Amino acid sequence: MRYATFGEPSFCIVQQGRCVLAVDGEEPITLQAGDFVLLPATPGFLLSDGQTQLPAHIDPTRDPLPDRDVRHGRQDGPPDVRLLGGWFCFESHEPALLASLLPTLVHVRGVPRLSNVVTLLSDEADHDWPGRAVVLSRLVDLLLVESLRATPGASAPPGLLRGLADARLAPSLRELHARPAHAWTVEQLAQRAALSRSAYFERFSRALGVAPMTYLLAWRMALARALLREGHASVAEAAEHVGYRSVSTFSMAFHRHTGLPPRRYARQYPATARAERG
Questions:
Q1: Cα 13 from Cα 139, distance rounded (Å)
Q2: 2-109 has which CATH code?
Q3: CATH number of the domain located at residue range(s) 214-275 in this protein
Q4: Residue 210 CB neighbour total at 10 angstroms
Q5: Helix boundaries (H) for 16-169
Q6: What pTM did the predictor assign?
Q7: pLDDT tens per residue, range 134-183
Q8: For residues 34, 40, 46 and 47, what is the CA-based torsion angle, rounded to 10 degrees?
Q9: CA gap 34, 7 in Å, rounded
Q10: Which residues pair with 19 in a beta bridge?
């Protein structure tokens, strides 16, 4: 099966059997029962039995997403592989930011805590019990957190997982995330890591793939976009929330980062019309 690019974060659990997953731009991997796969941006990919065949094509942005079992290929006999898949819809965070900070492919195998969540999720998906939708939603949230915890961040490509796996960098990253409005400097962040300014800058850039202030700007703009998109703040309030005392300075930074002035960006989303108070 050849899937076209989807663009949203998605996941897959191998319930039984095995198959080969070939994600565009990545080396093919063999999946087996109990494996978990997260695709933060879901590029195009191929699922196969490893034999040379012409694949059937699916476009998840056009074709209706199934809410029941779908069997591909041979319609009788035991399946070669059984997969449970789904996708995430983030209400307050930027999927694009998530995708930029995580590897293209997150593959987890042999983690007992995650295996327990996968077992519960698979069991819940196979039955029509009362409260099924609520339980599935909570389990999927837990699945995302546990999969990121289980990913070996120290050996991951540059990005958030690798940064959080660094005991020196992690405290400063947590503070930066929690206090986006603070007037952070590289020196302040370096102090929290017990490193010199130059050592911190080099270590952060190598682990995250971007310089500290570039990362901070991306985080602030992601938060600002969410506030404006959801109608939770006016432009002035969004600016203050992410550390800008001047609305004009914020507007210029927002325009450079997104290609649109904040008010025009907000007008793209009907829920924000009531939020434009200044």
A1: 13
A2: 2.60.120
A3: 1.10.10.60
A4: 17
A5: 95-101, 112-125, 132-150, 160-165
A6: 0.68
A7: 998 888 888 887 887 777 666 666 788 788 888 899 999 999 999 999 99
A8: 20
A9: 25
A10: 31
